[in-house]
Amino acid sequence: MPRQLGIVNFVKNIGRSKTPPSIDISIRDHDNYPTEYIRTLTFNEAFNILLSQDKFIARSDYKHLVEQYRDLSQSYAILAQSNILNEYVAKHNLDIKAINCFRTAFDEMADFATESPTIRKHNDAYISHHIKSEKFYLDNILKACDPAISLDREQREVVLSEEDHTLVIAGAGAGKTTTVAAKVRYLVEKRGVDPSKILVISFTNKAVEELRGRINSNLGIPCPISTFHSVGYTILRQGDEDRKKIVGEGYMYTVINNYLKSSVLRNPEVVDKLILFFGSYFTAPYEGEKLNEYFQFVAKADCSTLKGNLREYVQHIVDRKTLKTQTLNNEVLRSMEEVRIANFLYMYQIEYEYEPIYQYPILDANKPYTPDFRIKQGNKISYIEHFGITEDHRSDRYTPEELEKYISRIDDKKQVHAKHKTDLIYTYSQYADGRDYLLHLRELLVAHGYELNKRPTEEVYKKLIETEESKYITRLTFLLCTFINNFKTQGYGLEKFAEFKAANKNVRTKLFLDICKVCYHEYQKVLEEQHCIDFQDMINESAELIRQKRIGKEQLDYRYIIVDEYQDISRQRYNLIKELSQLCNAKIMAVGDDWQSIYAFSGSILPLFTRFCEAVGYGQELKITRTYRNAQEIIDIAGTFVQKNSAQIKKELVSPKRIINPVIIYPYVETFDKGKERPEGGKYHYLGIAVNKAIEEILEYNTAERKSRIASILLIGRYGFDARNLCYSKQFNYDEKTGKVYSVKYGSKIKLQFLTAHSSKGLSADNVIIINAKDEIYGFPSKVDDDPVLNLVVSNDTSYNYAEERRLFYVALTRTKNRVFIVTPEKRPSEFIKELLSDPKSYPNVTLQGELKTDLAISNVVKDRCPICGYPMQFRWNKNYGLRLWICTNDQEICGFMTNDKRGGELSIQKCDWCKDGYLIVKGGRSGPILGCTNYKSDKSGCGRLLSQEHYRVWRKDNFGMEDPSKDKPAYFHAPESSAGNPQAPEMISAKANPATKKKAEIYTIGYSERMIEKDGFKVIVDANGDILTDMQLLAKLRTLRQTIAQENGVVASRILYDSVLVLLATDRPLSREEFIDIKGITISTYMRIGERFIAEIKKHVES
To answer: What angle do CA 454, 455, 461 make, to 5 degrees?
Structure first.
């Protein structure tokens, strides 16, 4: 009822108001029209005037209309909802068409998030008209850059569009830089925009230099082109901030590393937390529910102990095979939970031994029973068993049958200890009271009469610093730096640590945040004291300066902000652009490709790109889909591959180029016949041969297709060390100074360049060879897991399996102008290679040159799995057996499988029942693997126990608690005398190292050799064999050119270019501006002065 009265009063009053003074009298036909109607006609007239203009209508062009007439729209909406609009029109003799026209137009414009169809139609007509009317101008807009460049239809639409916020989604090789340059020129020459009011921003110095070359140099337009960091620094200088010294990422590492190694000792509370973190939480525990992911975690986990890493673990063993004494100094356990227990015992000075043989001859599945720990304090000895299930006997890891076996084994162990009156302390993974199992262990130890004397943490920490070898402090420093860098990249401040901690229940994460907060504060304090600023603060502080209005529009007056490579945008960079745009009322044009978003690890947030309009409030999205780099066949393969992830923006890229056999895969062997001599470089020997096969085929294609005789080839690796690995093969040589790779076989016939997939973005080459398509942790895709704490500050893309790695592989595929060659191990090819080959309908034109000796089905199953239970196995010394064994990482209550040779399959090491001190291990039999005793001797004087697979299956037992029947049998094994009581410390080797002496593989590197050209001596580049890699004929020509330029300028030749630079030019033969600038010793100014003349000389030589 009140609402009805409100409507009645509203209708009574709606016609009474007179025309306000602001309304032009001429617009009214009758004085008695209601004010609302007069305003309606005013709006309609303004809207028609807007549509009649020959301009692109942006939302800001009608924003004032929406704000001014929103109340009028609401008035008409109330009348319509109340079904009295027609009554109102009739009462005042109004034109309903005028009102409907207003309502339709206003409703279309009211929501800025959606584009008005009427205005869209107008803008489409405007663009179509100007594409025709300005055809000659647009045809020639970039002739100064390159006479061959002609903008396509989509690029011209970008140039002509004038929306306030525009996202240009471009494919690889579609001409993003070209489009940006054309846009800038059009704004200056056709829109009359002052060049100083157009700000162009990119992410790297290399990208900025390319844009400057196109826009500042070729087009002669002096608009500012900078990196984000330069923009931030400029803003800080405008705000009258004191000039600070800019520091790089290495500075943070040095500050934090130094703090952790020295200053932190003045803060006992932090030292305690560090020791707790290193001892209990150094490796993040697995917290998922998928069993195979758990297996992958176990396979990669670092299960070494504090005692081992502090060099306090020394274990003498006699190698059963060589009878030599080995000293192990690296203690590796089965599980992370056992590592925590070992570290706890170490910190409380309780002597322990891991997996000792039980003091009574008891068998566990035909092997000596080995409890998890034997501990000793004074005369007191106890055993500790840790059970990896809950106190009430539950576990998600095991089937009901396995859990029943586990519980039965627990009971059996308790009975054995009770029977033999040995003291047993046992713990569980989880307790009903929710407390950590170490707290329960502490109480149990005290109850069993042990004194807990905690080592002084400062003493332990100092020892840790002294024995540091890329372990605790180094790894923690890297983690802290990565976290803090991304923390600042997200624009967070000190108060965010408290927010993170309050919202997180994970004990490890809370502990890390406490440590990180102290290190962050220490780092910021040093920056302040040293009057320095890092790149992250440069951007954050500049955005804050604008936000606080400490800098005005008169100091930063931009009308257009153009951002290149926008797919790499981070939160802090977005904040800077947003604040700058709002301050200047500037339009934003962002250009990028979500398919090439590959920098999440350094703070980029992909949704800021894929949801651009939502993030900025409103805008338009345009696409550039015509690529000029890749052939259509490459685009189809790469585009299909990246779009398997439906979260990526859909694009249909097209190319005028066609090619046969666009993607060629070369498998290679990684093993060698054991009877033959190991080739130099080992498995990398075969990698080098495979890469050479690809190079040979590239040269054959060049000849057949009448292309350049000198092939430009880009080697792409997943990591920087892939280049060094390739040069273990004598086919290739590595330059330690520049990171370049040279071919020994093909020398001057090819132009070879190595880049990681990340650093190759934005570049291109005639052909590409991907050299690390392996299925391993550091393969492609990379399977290196980020520490879970980084999830707080890094935006990980979980939309698809290996989502970012897929985009990185797309980048690698699309660097080529012709073909992509991929070398991959025949037995462990990358999952990406398997996908390309297993689905020929989705990926036609992928050629396999050879054979893969593996199933093409993609599997995330870890390698080296136990043949009995499927858990991962560790390969390490077992002190009890004197052998290096594959040991199952499952709890021994379920599976105690161990083997010396995986070829034995299910054959597990057993205690020999014919002799007291022998073990049955896998040996080669006439018809396959067998078990034979370690005490076997060729003269038949030892133990001759043998078991075939069939006998083993009948003979083996899986029960627990039997007495060893061999305890009274003969003993054959006698340790060599030199191994006992030897005063000299035996040679210490890592537990993971191979005891056999092997010649260490070496990387083949380039060298330098003095050569004379007339009277000048040059140190030219030679390969590892001494053969010259530098093109001596070209070097002579470049020397002559240098002399000519020197004479023209009246200076000595060395003032033009140093001899060393001339040698690099003659060796690497750059043919483009980018390649020329990439030469060590060359600068932008060098290129501007003499670059084109040298490139022309090199081209002339190459073509001849």
So the answer is: 135
Alpha-carbon gap, residue 613 to 167, rounded angstroms: 8
Dihedral pair phi/psi, residue 305, rounded to 5°: -105, 165
- CB neighbourhood size of 73 (10 A): 19
Cβ count near 695 (within 10 Å): 23
Least-confidence region, from 319-323, 336-340, 374-378:
319-323
Buried/exposed code over 219-238 (b: 16+ C-beta within 10 A; e: otherwise): bebebbbbbbbebbbbbbeb
Give pairs for 945-950: CB < 8 Å, separation 24+: 945/912, 945/913, 945/914, 945/915, 945/918, 945/920, 947/910, 947/920, 949/905, 949/906, 949/907
Q: Mind spelling out the 3-state secondary structure of 72-141? A: HHHHHHHHHHCCCHHHHHHHHCCCHHHHHHHHHHHHHHHCCCCCCHHHHHHHHHHHHHHHHHCHHHHHCC
pLDDT at 470: 52
Alpha-carbon separation of residue 1088 from 202, 1003, 1092 (angstroms) = 21, 37, 8
For residue 68, give the amino acid letter. Answer: Q
Render pLDDT for 838-862 as a digit per residue (tens, 0 to 9): 999 999 999 999 888 887 776 666 7
In the three-class reduction of DSSP (H, G, I as helix; E, B as strand; rest coil), residue 982 is classed as coil
User: Would you say 278 and 471 are in contact if contact means Cβ atoms under 8 Å apart?
Assistant: no
Q: How many residues does the chain have?
A: 1104
Q: What pLDDT score does 241 carry?
A: 61
pTM (2 decimals)? 0.84
- Cβ burial of 444 (10 Å; 0-12, 13-18, 19+) is middle
DSSP assigned state of 1005: B
| Peptide bond connecting 781 to the previous residue in cis, omega within 30 degrees of 0 | yes
- Provide the token pair at 561: 């902000």
What pLDDT, in 10s, does the model give residues 293-309? 666 666 667 788 878 87
Those residues with Cβ within 8 angstroms of residue 298's Cβ, 6 or more apart along the chain or in another chain: 286, 335, 862, 871, 872, 889
Q: Which of 520-529, 668-677, 875-884, 1060-1069 has the lowest mean pLDDT?
A: 668-677
User: What would the two tokens of residue 297 be?
Assistant: 């975690």
Assess contact for 763 and 715: CB atoms under 8 A. no
Asked if residue 834 has pLDDT above 90, the reply is yes
3-state secondary structure of 733: strand
pLDDT beyond 80 at 927: yes
Q: 37-41: long-range contacts at Cβ-Cβ below 8 A with a sequence spacing of 24 or more?
A: 37/92, 37/94, 37/98, 37/99, 39/69, 39/72, 40/72, 40/98, 40/99, 40/102, 41/98
Partners of residue 989 on adjacent β-strands:
328
Beta strand segments in 371-432, E: 373-377, 380-390, 424-430
Cβ(484)–Cβ(516) below 8 Å: yes
Burial class (CB in 10 A: 0-12, 13-18, 19+), 465: middle
Q: Are 370 and 355 in contact (CB under 8 A)?
A: yes
Q: Please, are residues 1077 and 209 in contact by the beta-carbon 8 Å criterion?
A: yes
Instruction: Give the CA angle between residues 861, 862, 864 to the nearest 5°.
Output: 130
The confidence score (pLDDT) of residue 22 equals 38
Determine the residue type at 239: G
Residue closest to 224 by CA, chosen among 556, 572, 645 = 556
Q: At what angle do helices 153-160 and 117-133 cross, to 10 degrees?
A: 110
Rounded Cα distance, 509 and 497, in Å: 11
Residue 14 or residue 881, greater confidence:
881
The CA distance from 166 to 180, in Å, is 12
- Model confidence pLDDT, tens digit, residues 766-780: 999 999 899 888 899
Pick from 1010, 1007, 1031: nearest CA to 1021: 1007
Burial (CB < 10 A; 0-12, 13-18, 19+), residue 581, is buried
Report the distance separating Cα 626 and Cα 622, nearest Å.
13
Cα–Cα distance between 834 and 774 in angstroms, integer? 11
The neighbouring-strand residues paired with 733 are: 742
